[in-house]
């Protein structure tokens, strides 16, 4: 008899929720201030893309026999998330002109709040 399989958590839903908030928010902001709109979009994507990378690597493996691969993927995902985040901020602030720095960080923090809330909801159900 095979052991019970633990289902992968639906972490992709967090990314979809972030995009479902970010895109309409940026479209609303576009009506009033284009620079602020794409600044928020850049900040939001700086949060979403590294988190999606981490989730892909961290939840690639399952089962007790894969414990080393799970740990390795978790570490690699976290390092990759950090590097992608730093590179994202560097690329945005080095290349995008004009830019609203406060709006970039606001978009980043808003997506981070959704990520934390979504993770908490997944863990408590």
Secondary structure layout plus pairing:
Elements (H helix, E strand, L loop, with lengths): L11 H21 L1 H25 L8 H29 L5 H24 L1
Helix pairs in contact: 1-2, 1-4, 2-3, 2-4
SS content category:
mainly alpha
Major sheet summary line: none
What is the alpha-carbon Rg in Å? 17 Å
- Please give the count of helices: 4
Low-confidence stretches: none
Distance, first to last CA: 28 Å
Strands, count: 0
Assign a percent range to the helix content: over 70%
Characterise this structure:
With 125 residues, the protein is mostly helical. 79% of the residues lie in helices and 0% in strands. The chain has helices spanning 12-32, 34-58, 67-95, 101-124. The two termini are 28 Å apart.
Short description:
This protein has about 120 residues and is mainly alpha-helical.
Distinctive features:
125 residues, mainly alpha
